[in-house]
Design a protein that fits this description.
The chain is α/β, with parallel strands linked by helices and 138 residues long. The protein has seven helices and five strands. 31% of the residues are buried.
Length: 138
């Protein structure tokens, strides 16, 4: 199963006591394939660096860039589906282009895509608690 994880999910999975540590554990156990673009990985780096420091950023990026269950995909088309927060489009464009199973996010701008009738191209956005259920994690 291919998924894109929004930045807040990643940030909450980094600390050992983070609220989404289960996400990191599931990734390490290869329960899903983590998909990202250069633009997404750059945002990850920036946010991890500012939250946890340079060393943590280097460790997390090293894991993501060398793991066998990651996929780097560069979108060649910008769909501009997220109007309220255009920065979120990097996740949507990558999700569409890489044909992921889920874009996992609790971001209200991305979650609005779930309510759009006849969204084209379709994007399957699920919340983190829903993804946890998909992975069958208690």
């Amino acid at each position: 199963m291919k998924v894109i994880i929004d930045t807040n999910g990643l940030l909450n999975s980094v600390p050992k006591n983070g609220s989404k540590r289960w996400l990191y554990d599931a990734f390490i156990c290869k329960k899903f394939e983590w998909v990202f673009s250069n633009e997404i990985i750059s945002e990850y780096a920036e946010m991890i660096g500012s939250e946890f420091g340079e060393t943590a950023m280097e460790v997390v990026l090293s894991i993501l860039l060398t793991a066998t269950n990651t996929l780097r995909y560069e979108p060649y088309y910008k769909w501009k589906l997220v109007v309220d927060d255009p920065e979120d489009n990097k996740f949507v464009d990558c999700a569409i282009g890489a044909n992921v199973d889920f874009l996992v996010s609790d971001d209200r701008h991305l979650l609005r895509l779930r309510n759009m009738e006849r969204l084209f191209p379709p994007v399957s956005v699920i919340k983190f608690d829903e993804f946890k259920q998909v992975l069958d994690i208690q």
